[in-house]
From TrEMBL:
The chain crosses the membrane at residues 65-82, 119-139, 151-172, 178-199. Keywords: Cytoplasmic vesicle, Endoplasmic reticulum, ER-Golgi transport, Membrane, Protein transport, Receptor, Transmembrane, Transmembrane helix, Transport. It is found in: Cytoplasmic vesicle, COPI-coated vesicle membrane; Endoplasmic reticulum membrane; Golgi apparatus membrane. Belongs to the ERD2 family. It holds the Pfam family ER_lumen_recept. This is ER lumen protein-retaining receptor.
Length: 208
């Protein structure tokens, strides 16, 4: 494992923990898109089904279990425990416009036409666009809380570091995964406008 993948994983974990702590400490999920969190839970569920079939390393297994557990914990906090604070009026992105095309694409473009491989490919494609409901929600309200911008920053940083990881692996290991790279590029592009505003306008800003 290279340093870019490790720091990418830690950035991803930081984003998830920041979001969970924000919800728990404030006792509110205001400003958080429940739809994006459901999509991320679906991403981790379909990607990490190999937990039932293979063992790679303790680190790999631990991180997968943490991602899945935290994803469903976040969904529970939003839709159950702090449901009264959930802003469903602004969380209106039509997620079927993401899930259906991504599902179809995963059947058409994959590495191997097998159930686990198709589900893994589906998770890669879906992750690249899963943040759209959150960005759409922020664009409707016009502003993002400081803690939400930190969450998005670390989430974007994770994906950017993973792109560097793929480049590193190509040059030093001869490993190349076109599906993961293209999806990663798409996801990073979605964060570009956010990154610019985060750096130039500080922690809290009007979005779009």
């Amino acid at each position: 494992m290279n340093i870019f993948r490790l720091t990418g994983d830690l950035s991803h974990l930081a984003a998830i923990i920041i979001l969970l702590l924000k919800i728990w400490k404030s006792r509110s999920c205001a400003g958080i898109s429940g739809k994006s969190q459901v999509l991320f839970a679906l991403v981790f569920t379909t990607r990490y089904l190999d937990l039932l079939t293979s063992f790679i390393s303790l680190y790999n297994t631990t991180m997968k279990v943490i991602y899945i557990g935290c994803a469903y914990a976040t969904v529970y906090l939003i839709y159950m425990k702090f449901k009264a604070t959930y802003d469903g009026n602004h969380d209106t992105f039509r997620v079927e416009f993401l899930v259906v095309p991504v599902g179809g694409l995963s059947f058409l473009v994959n590495h191997d036409f097998s159930p686990l491989e198709i589900l893994w490919t589906f998770s890669i494609y879906l992750e690249s666009v899963a943040i759209l409901p959150q960005l759409f929600m922020i664009s409707k309200t016009g502003e993002a809380e400081t803690i939400t911008t930190h969450y998005l920053f670390f989430l974007g940083l994770y994906r950017a570091l993973y792109l560097i990881n793929w480049i590193w692996r190509f040059y030093f290991e001869g490993f190349f995964d076109m599906i993961a790279i293209v999806a990663g590029v798409v996801q990073t592009i979605l964060y570009c406008d956010f990154f610019y505003l985060y750096v130039t306008k500080g922690e809290s800003f009007a979005f779009f």
